[in-house]
Amino acid sequence: MIDVKTNTEMILRELTINLEKVDGAQLDLFVKVVSKAQKIFVAGAGRSGLAIRGFANRMMHLGFDVSVVGDLTTTSAQEGDLLIIGSGSGETQSLVAMAEKAKQHHVILALNTINPDSTIGKLADVKFVLPGASPKVAAEELVGQSVQPMGSSYEQLSFLVYDAMIMSLMELVNETTDTMFPRHANLE
């Protein structure tokens, strides 16, 4: 029999166990880098890309100048701007090429990943590591086990950590839900 509630409970337990393995100092440093950025660009592929787009949305609500790379209205990146990449493997070819180009333009590179020693991980100025099972990352000590398919646990934890970062950023930049809401889309 299909038991969605039990599946949900298993997922929540898994995410709680994975969160215990996360280095809080990495997360706090990441938030400080974001808070000081003049212009922020975000990129990710697949479901990691969906999670980071949600992060971009909330950063916009906070008043940050943020763009999703690849959108038609994305401006050029300049020296000192920040590119945040979400990539479990850190090896997605389009994102590797983007990271290399960012470094050529002296853009600060930040990474959310399972694999800190990946190609993008080696280029990153700042990164945080989230555990999660993924067929794209071979090292068992990095990925662990999962009751879920493919990289779901990493992608879910990414979304939650991004939202937790927004809460910290709210405090750093003195914003509240009330001050953020006027930046919410109103032509929907």
From TrEMBL:
This is SIS domain-containing protein. It comes from Vagococcus allomyrinae. GO terms for biological process: carbohydrate derivative metabolic process. One of its GO terms (molecular function) is carbohydrate derivative binding. InterPro entries: PHI/rmpB (IPR017552), SIS_dom (IPR001347), SIS_dom_sf (IPR046348). NCBIfam families: RuMP_HxlB. Pfam families: SIS. Gene3D superfamilies: Glucose-6-phosphate isomerase like protein, domain 1 (3.40.50.10490). SUPFAM superfamilies: SIS domain. Residues 30-175 form the SIS domain. Signal peptide: none annotated. Transmembrane segments: none annotated. Belongs to the SIS family. PHI subfamily.
